[in-house]
Amino acid sequence: MAHSETEPPEEETLRRWERKQAQLKANVIEEDTEEWQKDSTFAGLERVGGVDLSYAKGNNTIACASLVVLSYPDLEVLYEDCQMVTVSAPYVAGYLAFREAPFLVEAAQRLQEREPGLRPQVLLVDGNGVLHHRGFGVACHLGVLTGLPCIGVAKNLLQVDGLAKDELHKEQIRDLQMGGAMFPLRGTSGRVLGMALRSYNKSTKPIYVSVGHRTCLESAVRLVQSCCRYRIPEPIRQADIRSREYIRKNLSSPLGGTSPGPGRKEEAEPKH
DNA sequence: GCGACAG
DNA sequence: ATCTTGTCGC
């Protein structure tokens, strides 16, 4: 029987990951490299991608990696790829990319093989970009490995470089009156690492946008906001919805078919 | 001992 | 990320 939990990383593993991040970081581009980004209406932008991983309940290693491509600006799903995967790296804050990125890179490669014409012009990643302990979050990681412009979108603030959920931060959030309101996340270093954005009028909790690859923060925030029907930008939201639905359909009942509402519980681990 | 901790 | 019930509102 396979393990259902990932082991904590060895100290040596963390060192190796840090070296890898530093190595890849040299390739990050934090500026617009596409013409459509400079246009106020994003003229020329037709496809926006989104990626996400959902995990099977009660199991830390079984997950579904999903990549979707949406039309822009209509946000209709043009492409969907869900793939069951076995995650081996543990989750460690600051090293999320080593747990999730490999499967998302694979998904991007499948897309390139199957439907090269549907390749997204920008990829929204759930997690951070340069808003990260070492300035290299999963969105940067994916950007460098795929060459695609990437934007990090986190649902929670990663408290780094002096950023904290302190009283000042909470007050700044309260001051975000309407959808579209935002404030910069300036670290102790003086650097602006990202933007807190009230993406949806009805949600008071902001999302945290940061540069991943081949984009500037201004374009990134503007694009993310233009993709929000709800709090979470549609590409990521669709990837999330579809990946968890995929898990539900493929794992809820070993025999397939719809399982009755309440009253399911898979135990029964036959021993010798 | 207490707080932090993207997903 | 996932575990969980009801609840308030359109």
Keywords:
single chain; 272 residues; alpha+beta; archaeoglobus fulgidus dsm 4304 fold; 8-stranded mixed beta sheet; DNA-binding
List how many beta strands DSSP finds.
8
Q: Please, what is the average pLDDT? A: 91
Class from secondary-structure proportions: alpha+beta
**What is the approximate shape?**
globular
Helical content (DSSP H or I, runs of 4+): 25-40%
Distance between the termini: 13 Å
Overview of this structure, please?
The protein is 31% helix and 21% strand. Strands 3-2-1-4-5-8-7-6 form an eight-stranded mixed beta sheet, with helices on both faces. The longest helix is centred in the middle third of the chain and has 19 residues. The two termini are 13 Å apart. The chain binds two DNA strands through strand 1 and helix 3.
List the SSEs and their pairings:
Elements lengths: L10 H15 L9 H4 L8 E9 L6 E10 L5 E10 L9 H19 L7 E5 L11 H9 L3 E5 L12 H8 L7 E5 L5 E6 L9 E7 L3 H10 L7 H18 L21
Parallel strand pairs: 1-4, 4-5
Antiparallel strand pairs: 1-2, 2-3, 5-8, 6-7, 7-8
Helix pairs in contact: 3-4
The structure holds two DNA strands.
